[in-house]
Amino acid sequence: RQQGRANSTTRSLAYERLRRAIQKSIEAGALEPGHSLPSERDLAKLLSLSRVTVRKAIAGLVDEGVLTQRHGAGTFVAARIVKSFSKLTSFTDDLRARGLKPRSVFFEKSIGEVTPDEAMALNLSPGAKVIRLHRLRYAGDEPLAIERTTIPQDLVADPDMVEDSLYEALDKTHGRPTRALQRLRAIAFDADQAKLLGLPLGSPGLFIERRAFLASGRVVEFTRSFYRGDAYDFVAELQSDT
Ligand code: 16G
């Protein structure tokens, strides 16, 4: 028993050391955001550590949001995106500003009749036609968000005008929105969302609802975004009332 206790103490120290070493490499820029780590087995071999030690160190960093794991793809250095909560930007703008490559996979790009909810959000009459987009949004190969957008059809006549970015399509038609109202709420991803984003069931997410207005005052988009909680920081400058 004595022997067992000694071993487990040594192991817990080794795991702490490895955890700190990985953290330091990230801070020093030797391990860059988005880069993958060697497999558990390779790391154990490389560092002459047990797989239990490696697994524990990695699990701790995943819990802290320093590393992320995607099923079947491995472990990555988490790339947190810092986004202003008071600037009206697009997903594409946010990623390009950080040197990342925005990409979308569309599940839906269609024209249909407005639902009561959408009509209220977009100030449309019942029966009006809308364009619907349902997209999984990536930075390179990493999925970051799921978005469902509804736009009045008369503003972007053809859904195929949205190749990847909605705001770039608006640049070519009525211009981008100049104002927006936005609500943010914490959620846990459901099974379908977690699967799309390659995250464990119940992972935290940020639900963000946006109604954006053109300079004319018309509502141009009603979007429900589901951003990965482990990938985004929202920041804002605050001012006191006095
Ligand atoms: C952002 C917006 C979303 C907008 C999209 C347009 C948030 C929370 N949501 O994701 O409302 O529709 O950008 O981006 O910021 P796009 O021009 O790349 O399609």
- What top-tier CATH class of the largest domain fits best? Alpha Beta
As a percent range, the share of helical residues equals 25-40%
Query: Could you tell me how far the N terminus lies from the C terminus, measured between alpha carbons in angstroms?
Result: 66 Å
Going by CATH, the homologous superfamily of the largest domain would be Chorismate lyase-like
Count of the domains: 2
State the major sheet.
Answer: 6 strands, antiparallel
Tell me which CATH architecture of the largest domain applies here: 3-Layer(aba) Sandwich
In terms of quaternary structure, the protein is single chain
Ligands, deduplicated: 2-acetamido-2-deoxy-6-O-phosphono-alpha-D-glucopyranose
Figure out the total of helices: 7
Structural class computed from helices and strand pairing: alpha+beta
